[in-house]
Specification:
225 residues, alpha/beta, Undecaprenyl pyrophosphate synthetase, 6-stranded parallel sheet, 6 strands
Length: 225
């Protein structure tokens, strides 16, 4: 049976959920936070150590300005309201991406949230915000060149945003879309991928548990027979 150390999720379908329920796209983003909390709790229950959530991609700046502002305000609100509960649950928060391009207020809150949860150990949640895998790889190669060390797989692994983490065992993408969307392209080389038709706010604990159960019995060859 395969152990699950790291789960990565592309939380797709919030906007479509809002429109489907005759509300706004922003209402869908707000509803998606309930699923985030469920995944946090289930990850702790299953003793999963790492959870990486694709929150805002480097390509999402193409969206309407009011939606982008809402998404950042929603994250600010979530961090302010839930930080004590996150600390109580022994969850460590880590943000990955080009954080220096985010609004200053959000950057400060991100740093504060990371500082407050730094020593927590039950679960590490990596929030990928203004994240793009291609940019991550370019930045990684720049770091390697600056350090004047050899360009090889080990040194790339050791200079990624996720340098201290095991690669994801499982990738889940909701929203009935089957693509990676520039997410963890290097790290997903041997990850088992589960595409789900449900929109993110409709993704339930039973759906998550079903994937975890199925994964445990998958024969993982990693290139061998």
């Amino acid at each position: 049976m395969n152990p699950v150390k790291h789960v990565a999720i592309i939380m797709d379908g919030n906007g479509r959920w809002g429109i489907k329920h005759k509300k706004s796209r922003n209402a869908g983003h707000r509803a998606g936070l309930n699923t985030v909390e469920m995944i946090m709790n289930q990850s702790i229950n299953h003793k999963i150590k790492f959870l990486t959530l694709y929150t805002f991609s480097s390509e999402n700046w193409k969206r309407p300005k009011d939606e982008i502002i809402f998404l950042f305000k929603l994250l600010e609100s979530f961090l302010k309201k839930k930080i004590n509960k996150i600390i109580e649950k022994d969850i460590k928060l880590k943000f990955i991406g080009e954080l220096n391009k985010l609004p200053t207020k959000l950057q400060k809150l991100i740093k504060l949230s990371e500082k407050k949860t730094l020593k927590n150990k039950s679960l590490q949640i990596n929030i990928a915000i203004n994240y793009g895998s291609k940019i991550e790889l370019i930045n990684t190669i720049k770091k390697i060149n600056q350090k004047k060390i050899k360009l090889n797989e080990k040194n790339i692994d050791n200079n990624l945003y996720t340098k201290d983490l095991p690669d994801p065992d499982i990738l889940i993408r909701t929203g009935d879309t089957q693509r990676l969307s520039n997410f963890l392209l290097w790290q997903l080389s041997y990850t088992e991928i589960f595409f789900q038709k449900k929109l993110w706010p409709d993704f339930k604990d039973k759906d998550f548990n079903k994937i975890l159960h199925k994964f445990k019995f998958i024969k993982r060859n990693f290139g061998s027979i």
